[in-house]
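Figure 3 (text version): structure tokens given as input.
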């Protein structure tokens, strides 16, 4: 914890960033951004979509499949998340910069999604035999995830 705070302090002092939300988004495969100063991030929580800005109340939230929108000034970037967690912490130094960490299973820019391929996979899932409880569950969960991919790709 002390090491993370020291790194954050060095980052904030080195760049002169104050009173901004420092966003880290990563999956096991890659880190999209590390302590990037942004205005806000909108995430698909399991209880509904919500937006986090600097000085938000402390929160840990499970995320469901959907679109994460990162706002920095007039620039918006959208990412698809399969599922994961959001951790929001208040500043541990004098910079006034709160931290938001998105830890995802899969996290990709929405521009990388292929709607036609997702539609093909959905058709295959729905056409597959559903003889056992496992087959029915796999088809239902897969269809729910692929439907979110299709929605995000639009």
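Below: residues designed for each position.
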């Amino acid at each position: 914890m002390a090491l993370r705070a020291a790194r954050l302090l060095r980052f904030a002092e080195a760049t002169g960033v104050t009173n901004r939300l420092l966003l880290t988004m990563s999956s096991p495969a890659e880190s999209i951004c590390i302590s990037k100063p942004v205005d806000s991030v909108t995430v698909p929580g399991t209880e509904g979509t919500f937006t986090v800005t600097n000085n938000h109340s402390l929160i840990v939230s499970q995320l469901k499949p959907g679109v994460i929108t990162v706002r920095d000034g007039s620039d918006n970037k959208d990412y698809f998340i399969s599922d994961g967690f959001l951790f929001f912490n208040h500043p541990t130094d004098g910079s006034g910069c709160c931290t938001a960490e998105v830890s995802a299973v899969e996290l990709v820019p929405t521009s990388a999604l292929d709607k036609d391929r997702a539609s093909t996979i959905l058709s295959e899932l729905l056409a597959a035999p559903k003889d056992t409880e496992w087959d029915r569950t796999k088809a239902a969960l897969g269809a729910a995830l692929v439907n979110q991919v299709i929605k995000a790709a639009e």
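Confidence is low (pLDDT under 50) at residues 5-14.
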